[in-house]
Write a structure and sequence with these properties.
With 367 residues, this protein is an alpha+beta fold. The chain has 2 domains: 218 residues, Rhopdopsin 7-helix transmembrane proteins, CATH 1.20.1070; 133 residues, Reverse transcriptase/Diguanylate cyclase domain (Alpha-Beta Plaits, 2-Layer Sandwich), CATH 3.30.70.270. The chain has 13 helices and 4 strands. Strands 2-3-1-4 form a 4-stranded antiparallel β-sheet, sandwiched between helices. Helix 3 packs parallel to helix 5, helix 5 packs antiparallel against helix 7 and helix 7 runs antiparallel to helix 8. The radius of gyration is 29 Å and the shape is elongated. It starts with 5 loop residues before the first helix and ends with a helix. One of its GO terms (cellular component) is plasma membrane. Its EC number is 2.7.7.65. One of its GO terms (biological process) is negative regulation of bacterial-type flagellum-dependent cell motility. It catalyses: 2 GTP = 3',3'-c-di-GMP + 2 diphosphate. GO terms for molecular function: diguanylate cyclase activity.
Length: 367
């Protein structure tokens, strides 16, 4: 079996990267606010320029090739910057200096060692350092993309990061080849470009999937979440309820006392503020205990707690304390709560909700 030569592989990578860059540009032209496409298009087109520069730069020019390696490191940062921009976060971070610097230092290191007479310059040493610098550059960027904050929200982002990490075996083989005297001065380029033929497509297709997943997530939230409080609505409750239909789980029904009077005296904006505060505090506290919060409508809320949770009465006490410090007219309103435990013969979550409602109204009657 004969491998394609480096020039052929380079041309294939340039054509593939150009095609994806064109796609990113077209998508950006349709929505100028989608700046993540700009970062991804730059990554593709700049990579094409880097591949061409490797053939055009004068051999032996340390300055020229150091600049090329710096730009190559930048192309590995741009996909991450685009993903961050898409999530509404700051695109440029301090750590992004590391991928660029490591790519440059990997190329410069043999010359520096030779100038200090610490090691003789050789093609093997140059290959090892080039591969090591690029491996660090790709590894850092790929790791942040695959496992950094926000990565769990989309499969596309994790897949894109894993595609970048997929280049590492090629760089490791390049380093091993230098130690074992594998012939060929372009071993680093050969293995990297071979990796391109599979991973470049995976990387860019995964990037394209990220905004699609984000839109799907927003549509799902719009269908299943209450727009005012962010809690599950009735449809969302049906999606999560099955996880709590287990003996020992608990449902807490919550109702704002004299909610109509709050609206009448302070206005509907104040009433909305109360509902937002209740939904926020109940949802946050429920999630810390492995539970969920839902708004059934009006001022009626539910908290679903798993069997492994703390004592439900203790949870209710914690929620009362949090609501007192919520700041949303906290001294002017209060809530009543009722709870019901899921029993072994319960087959529908609605049966448990009915018992929790009954407990709630018994609590309101005692106030």
């Amino acid at each position: 079996m004969t491998f394609p030569d480096v020039d052929t592989l380079r041309l294939c990578s340039m054509l593939s990267s150009s095609a994806f860059g064109f796609v990113f540009c077209v998508l950006w032209l349709r929505d100028r606010a989608a700046t993540h496409f700009v970062y991804w298009a730059l990554s593709s087109f700049v990579y094409v320029g880097v591949l061409y520069a490797f053939t055009a730069a004068p051999r032996g020019s340390l300055a020229a090739f150091s600049l090329i390696y710096a730009v190559l490191g930048l192309t590995q940062v741009l996909p991450v910057a685009g993903a961050l921009a898409l999530e509404g976060e700051r695109a440029w971070r301090r750590w992004m200096v590391v991928p660029v610097a490591s790519a440059v230092l990997g190329h410069v290191l043999p010359a520096a060692l030779g100038a200090l007479d610490w090691a003789p310059r050789s093609e093997s040493l140059q290959s090892v350092c080039d591969a090591a610098g690029l491996a660090i550059s790709m590894g850092v960027s790929g790791y942040v993309l695959a496992f950094g904050p926000g990565a769990r929200r989309t499969v596309g982002r994790r897949l894109a990061g894993l595609a970048m990490l997929g280049y590492l075996p090629g760089y490791i083989l390049s380093i091993s080849g230098a130690f074992f005297d594998v012939p060929g001065r372009d071993l680093v380029a050969l293995l990297a470009l071979l990796s391109d033929q599979v991973l470049l497509g995976v990387l860019n297709l995964a990037l394209l999937a990220i905004p699609v997943e984000q839109v799907q997530r927003k549509l799902r939230n719009a269908a299943l979440r209450d727009p005012l409080t962010g809690c599950w609505n009735r449809a969302g409750l049906e999606q999560v309820a099955a996880r709590f239909l287990l003996p020992g789980a608990t449902i807490i029904a919550i109702d704002v006392d004299h909610f109509k009077a709050i609206n009448d005296r302070h206005g509907h904006a104040a009433g909305d503020e109360v509902l937002v505060a209740l939904g926020r505090e109940a949802g946050a506290l429920a999630e810390t205990h492995g539970g969920q919060a839902a708004r059934l409508g009006g001022d009626e809320f539910l908290v679903l707690l798993p069997a492994r949770c703390c004592d439900p009465s203790f949870f209710m006490g914690l929620l009362h304390e949090r609501l007192k410090g919520s700041g949303a007219l906290a001294d002017l309103w209060s809530v009543s709560m009722g709870l019901a435990a899921v029993e072994a013969d319960d087959r529908r979550i609605d049966d448990v909700i009915v018992r929790a409602d009954r407990s709630l109204y018994e609590a309101k009657a005692r106030r």
